[in-house]
Write a structure and sequence with these properties.
two-stranded antiparallel sheet, eight-stranded parallel β-sheet, globular, TIM Barrel, alpha/beta
């Protein structure tokens, strides 16, 4: 492990008011999104869509790193240029999703545990040799009747910490993603309580596994009421609750917090990130950035629809959403940007 290289990479990922673009959807998830739009669910269609993303002109102005999937990191443009080369030539850092997905947790009905630790050391070494410089592992926590349980939280926190330690061993910056899901009727206060408990447990395990906090990125949920909660809070309330929660539990040594969008619309995710930076940016020990997937990609996917003649318009939509989030990091995002 080269500690300084890890620190430099982690800092670069949240520098310049940029953020991460998550394009690490598994093949089944990608196929489901294609199916809704009538796009063929084939490897070539997935390759073409990913080429559209990585060749978007000017993407590096707003995006510091992209998170790839195992299939994607091995793919190339139609002319044979590897995606890794395209990404690095654009000044963007390549990353890789390395977990094997969230599965039902034995003995814990309604809860999940993320798998993928078996053989991870070897896979990380291979990805590093291919050019990846950071990785991502996602744990999912559901709020419901008498859940999440202590057992679920602790098992997922331990897996995240083991993954992070293995990443740093081979020189990859770990993006640590404990996601408290938006699904449900829970209130903002309940989400705050659970998010704080989850993050406390995660950092306790990161300390136990001797993870260097300066060489990692945290990718948490925003503190939000459940999607079906009758009371949907104002943007400033969400911003205040999220930052106050993070200040209680995230050590100042962590260089950056890159929020997941978690199913929020692109506009709402940008608006909430903007509010946090407007209200708190000058007073925080870490950068507040973004690591969005659908909240950046969805408009482009809907425009593309698998058709070559739509590529340019789709890339313009992708560039626009990335630029909106760059502005949100600066506290300069406005609704008027959506009309340009």
């Amino acid at each position: 492990m080269n500690a300084q290289e890890l620190i430099d990479t982690a800092r670069t990922l949240v520098a310049g008011d940029k953020g991460l673009l998550a394009m690490d959807e598994s093949n089944p998830t990608c196929n489901k999104r294609f199916a809704r739009l009538g796009i063929p669910q084939t490897e070539e269609a997935r390759r073409a869509y990913r080429e559209l993303i990585v060749t978007t002109p000017g993407l590096g102005e707003s995006i510091s790193g992209v998170i790839l999937y195992d299939e994607t990191i091995r793919q190339s443009k139609k002319d044979g240029t590897s995606f890794i080369k395209v990404i690095t030539d654009a000044g963007i850092i390549p990353g890789i999703k390395v977990d094997a997905g969230a599965k039902e947790m034995a003995g814990y009905p309604g809860e999940k545990i993320t798998e993928g630790l078996d053989g991870l050391r070897g896979r990380l070494a291979e990805y590093s040799q291919m050019g990846a410089r950071f990785a991502k592992w996602r744990a999912v926590i559901t709020i419901g009747d008498r859940i999440p349980s202590r057992g679920c939280i602790e098992a997922n926190a331990q897996a995240l910490a083991r993954y992070a330690s293995l990443c740093q061993e081979v020189g990859l910056v770990p993006v640590v993603e404990p996601e408290v899901l938006m699904d449900g009727e829970h209130t903002l206060e309940r989400c705050c309580e659970v998010t704080e408990k989850v993050l406390r447990t995660v950092f306790d395990q990161l300390y136990t596994e001797r993870v260097m906090l300066e060489g990692m990125i945290l990718k948490p949920n925003m503190v939000l009421p459940g999607l079906t909660c009758p009371k949907q809070e104002a943007v400033d309330v969400v911003a205040d609750a999220t930052v106050k929660c993070l200040l209680r539990v995230v050590p100042a040594a962590v260089p950056g917090i890159a929020f997941l969008s978690g199913g929020q619309s692109g506009e709402l995710a940008s608006t909430r990130l903007n509010a946090m930076n407007v209200r708190f940016k000058s007073r925080l020990p870490w950068a507040l950035a973004f690591s969005f997937a659908r909240a950046i990609q969805q408009p482009a996917l809907e425009i593309w629809q698998g058709k070559e003649f739509n590529v340019l318009a789709a890339q313009q939509a992708l560039y626009h959403r990335a630029k909106c989030n760059w502005a949100a990091r600066r506290g300069e995002y406005t609704a008027a940007m959506e009309k340009t």
